[in-house]
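Progress note, sequence design subtask.
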């Protein structure tokens, strides 16, 4: 893909890096100038906020998505994570990495410093509690965005993301989420067949994300209690949103896609914690089972589990009036009934597809926009957690209006923060707020 057109350059400048002073008062001109070697006026400069496993992967994919891209800034709360990420990127694609020492930012305010540089595109790869705030700041600074899923951990966060997405759209910014299955070729082909009526009208969907234990970072002697939580963020619902939001949300997104992204009317369900009950596993559950009632009597059943040595399944099984579609997420795509069909073809990397699409959309002046959809899919998971934690049945409106805020405000974070540890939720006792 070549980018030589003046109009493209103007578009990128208008909607990307040419916002000199943002409403938050950052002046990008205050960032120190760098050597301009390997950069030209068409280069799309990329900044990575949250230099962990996924963020680093996404940065690499961004660096491969367009011939004239350069990663120019990185931000993390931990020096060691940023260093490791930098070294990985350097070994994978050194020609597309130009992050001077004064463009490596550390700390809870590192995102502000990165957004104050001249990056055109930012990758938001932190744990999800930071996403609504980082997203708002990135849009405010006029950056194109790739943000990992989930996009929030609570309903106020979702409402904020919906507002931010509107502004991003108005500003003509590209906004892509990490709901990567929507960029997987076998799924796109299968869902196109469903849209064409291959199984008639879908009335029931059963979806799972039943997996083993997740990673755990051993406590180190010099970690404070708060640092332990930030390092092992998966196990604290105020940081991760719990496993249904952090991980199983992918299956809910697949369900939502098949249901035409129409939101259910009501949900109820259950969940708990059986296999990882020790304090080091914070306050999250290790299994959920949720029923979503869609309009016209359609139903969605979701099961997720993170328990070691148990049966695993990552499936979506869709029943329609004229057949069935079964997807074993990474492996099999099959339609039976009135039509018999199996997906066959060349697989491609969905993570790379996401970035190829995002960067092409920036180049051609038609910014990709995932805004409301990514908020809705995330909300399905938050809602599932709410009904499981409380043992109540809740409507979409009730869940979305929830005032429960799980974590501190973005500007309250500091290493001195003493965020109270929250008890494990007990259905029937934990109240819905
Ligand atoms: N789409 C997918 O398939 C997929 C796969 C894995 C993870 N994810 C998502 O990606 C996100 C990150 O997950 P991960 O596995 O990379 O976790 P990780 O722990 O490896 O990385 C998170 C990084 O963010 C940093 N960080 C934390 N708070 C920060 C802040 N306020 N500012 C800057 N940096 C901060 C951490 O130090 C860490 O380096 C999560 O939302 C996760 O759900 C998506």
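Output:
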């Amino acid at each position: 893909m070549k980018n030589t057109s003046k109009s493209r350059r103007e578009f990128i400048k208008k909607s990307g890096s040419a916002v000199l002073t943002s409403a938050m008062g950052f002046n990008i001109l205050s960032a120190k100038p760098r050597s301009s070697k390997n950069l030209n006026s068409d280069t799309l400069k990329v900044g990575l906020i949250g230099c962990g496993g996924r963020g680093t992967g996404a940065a690499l994919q961004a660096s491969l998505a367009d011939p004239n891209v350069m990663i120019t800034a990185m931000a993390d709360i931990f020096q060691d994570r940023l260093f490791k990420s930098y070294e990985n990127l350097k070994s994978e694609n050194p020609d597309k990495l130009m992050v001077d020492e004064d463009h490596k930012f550390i700390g809870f305010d590192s995102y502000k410093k990165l957004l104050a540089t001249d990056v055109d595109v930012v990758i938001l790869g932190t744990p999800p509690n930071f996403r609504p705030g980082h997203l708002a700041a990135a849009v405010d600074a006029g950056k194109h965005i790739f943000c990992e899923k989930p996009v929030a951990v609570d309903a106020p966060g979702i409402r904020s993301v919906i507002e931010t997405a509107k502004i991003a759209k108005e500003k003509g910014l590209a906004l892509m989420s990490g709901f990567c299955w929507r960029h997987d070729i076998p799924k796109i082909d299968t869902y196109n067949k469903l849209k064409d009526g291959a199984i008639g009208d879908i009335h029931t969907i059963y979806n799972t994300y039943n997996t083993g234990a997740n990673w755990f970072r051993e406590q180190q002697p010099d970690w404070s209690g708060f640092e332990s939580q930030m390092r092992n963020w998966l196990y604290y619902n105020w940081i991760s949103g719990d496993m249904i939001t952090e991980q199983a949300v992918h299956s809910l997104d697949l369900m939502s896609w098949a249901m035409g992204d129409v939101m259910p009317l009501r949900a109820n369900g259950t969940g708990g914690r059986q296999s990882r009950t020790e304090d080091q596993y914070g306050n999250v559950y290790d299994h959920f089972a949720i029923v979503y009632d869609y309009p016209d009597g359609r139903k969605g059943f979701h099961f997720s589990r993170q328990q070691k040595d148990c049966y695993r399944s990552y499936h979506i099984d869709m029943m329609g009036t004229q057949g069935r579609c079964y997807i074993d997420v990474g492996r099999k795509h099959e339609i039976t009934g009135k039509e018999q069909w199996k997906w066959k073809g060349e697989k491609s990397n969905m993570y790379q597809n996401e970035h190829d699409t995002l960067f092409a959309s920036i180049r051609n002046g038609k910014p990709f926009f995932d805004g409301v959809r990514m908020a809705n899919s995330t909300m399905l998971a938050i809602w599932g957690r709410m009904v499981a934690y409380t043992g109540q049945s809740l409507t979409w409106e009730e869940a979305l209006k929830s005032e429960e805020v799980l974590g501190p405000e973005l500007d309250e974070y500091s290493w001195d923060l003493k965020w109270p540890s929250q008890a494990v939720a007990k259905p029937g006792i934990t109240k819905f707020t």
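Residues 6-180+358-370 form a domain with the Rossmann fold fold (CATH 3.40.50.720). Work on this subtask will continue into the next period as scheduled.
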